Amino acid sequence: MSDATTLDRETNSPRAAFHATRAAADFPILAEALPSGKRLVYLDNAATTQKPTSVLEASDAYYRHANANVHRAIHTLSQRATAQYEGARDKLAAFLNASSRDEIVFTRGTTDGINLVANCYGRPRLSKGDEILLTELEHHSNIVPWQMVAEATGASIVVVPIQDDGSVALEDFRAKLSDRTKIAAFSHISNALGTVLPVKEMIAAAHEAGATTLVDGAQAVAHARVDVQALDADFYVMSSHKLFGPTGFGALYGKRALLEAMPPYQGGGDMIERVSFSGTTYNEIPYKFEAGTPNIAGAAALGAGIEYVEQFDMAEVFAYEHDLVARATEAMEAIDGLRIIGTAPGKAGIISFVMKGVHAHDIGTLLDESGIAIRTGHHCAMPVMERFDVPATARVSFALYNTQADVDALIDGLGSIQRIFG
Ligand code: C6P
Fold first, then answer.
1. 97 and 211 share a domain?
2. pLDDT, tens digit (0-9, with 9 covering 90-100), for 133-143
3. How far is CA 118 from CA 24, 114, 250, 262, 278, in A?
4. Mean pLDDT within 318-347
5. Are residues 158 and 16 in the same domain?
6. CATH number at residue 379
7. Among residues 335, 380, 382, 405, which one is catalytic?
8. Which residues have CB under 6 Å of ligand 1?
9. In terms of residue numbers, what domain contains 28?
C-alpha cells in the first residue's frame, strides 16, 4: 500500500492531479444532511454515481433553453436540441476513442445496448452448433439477452469459470474458445467482485478464434481510461448514470462495418430514410438504431458528465480508487468474521463481503443508520453468489469523490456491527 499522504486530497498528494474532497464539493447531494442529521457517506457508486452541478445544470438548461425535437425541424430550438444531442455523441466518441462518431449509438443504457447486439447481431447469425462465450462473473444483463437469443436460435452458452480470488484466467478463456465460438461477451470490470478482466487479451484471443466480441463497460467508464480502438473491441456498451450522467441513457459503440451490416433494432421515426407502404429504407448508422424521440436531455447531461471526468486523468482516478480499496480492505480484514469475496490483484473500487452471523441486508440497514449507503443482495450477478456459495453480499463501491474519511466511517460502522453481532 502507498504512503499515507498519497490519499490526503486536502493537502494535495504529489501523485494526484485531482482532489477527491474538492471533487465532492461539485456534487450537491453529498452535502445534503440526511434526516438523521448524519453526513451522507455514499459508497454505492457501482449502482449509480451521484451527479455534479454541471450535469444537473445541463439537463435544466436543455429544458429551459433548447427543448425541441432533434433532426426534425429548422427552428432555433430544434437546432439547439440537435446540437446538444449530437454534441454529446462527439464527446462520447472522443472519450471512448471511437474512430468515428457514427459508431456511437445512443441507447437506454448498458442493458439496452447488449439486447440490441444480441438481437440485431447475434440472432440473425447464430444457429445450432454455434457458441456464445460468457464468463461466470457476468451481470444478468450480459447473460439473459444471450440466453434468450440462444433459445431462439439453437446456439449454446459456454461459461468461463471464475477463480477463487474472483479473477478470470486468460488460459481458461482461451480453453473455451473454438471455431464454434461466434460471440464472446464479457465485463470489463465485475460489478459484484471488482475484478478487472484482461479484456484486451481476451479480445485478441477471441478474434484469433474468429469470434466477435462485446465488452460490458458499465463499471469501467467512470473508473479507467477506455480506448475502444486500442482494445480492438467489436462492441462496447456503457450506461450514462454510472459516468455521473442521468439514468435511462447510455451508448453502444460498434465497429462501423458491423453496425452497417446489422438490421435495425426497432422501427419508428428518425431511423428511416424513406417510408411507403410498398417498402421502407433505413437511415444510416447510428440513426438506424435510434427509433423515436430520444432522451435529448439525457444526452446533453451525459455530455456534461464526460466533460466533468475529462478534467481528470482516468489512470490517476483508477489508482486513487484502488488505494482507497487497499486501505479499506486492510482495515476490513482485521474485523473478526468478515470475509471479502473477490480479491483479484489490481481490482477496481469495489469490495464485496460477508460477515459471520449477520445477513447482508442487516449490514446495509445498520450502516444506513450511520449515514453510509452501500448495496446488499446478489447485485444482479446470481451466478457469482452461487460460485462463492453465499446468498448475498454487502458491497461498497467507490467513486472519485470518496475520501479516507468515508473509509474511516465505513470501518467504524462495520466495527459496531461486529460488536453487536459478534
Ligand atoms: N449494475 C449494480 O449495482 P444498466 O442497468 O443497464 O444501467 O446497467 C446494467 C449493468 C450491466 N453490467 C454491469 C457490469 C453492471 O454493473 C450493470 C449495473 C448495477 O451493480 C445495477 S444492478
1. yes
2. 999 999 999 99
3. 38, 6, 17, 11, 29
4. 95
5. no
6. 3.90.1150.10
7. 380
8. 46-47, 109-111, 139, 141-142, 187, 191, 216, 218-219, 239, 375, 379-380
9. 5-52+313-421
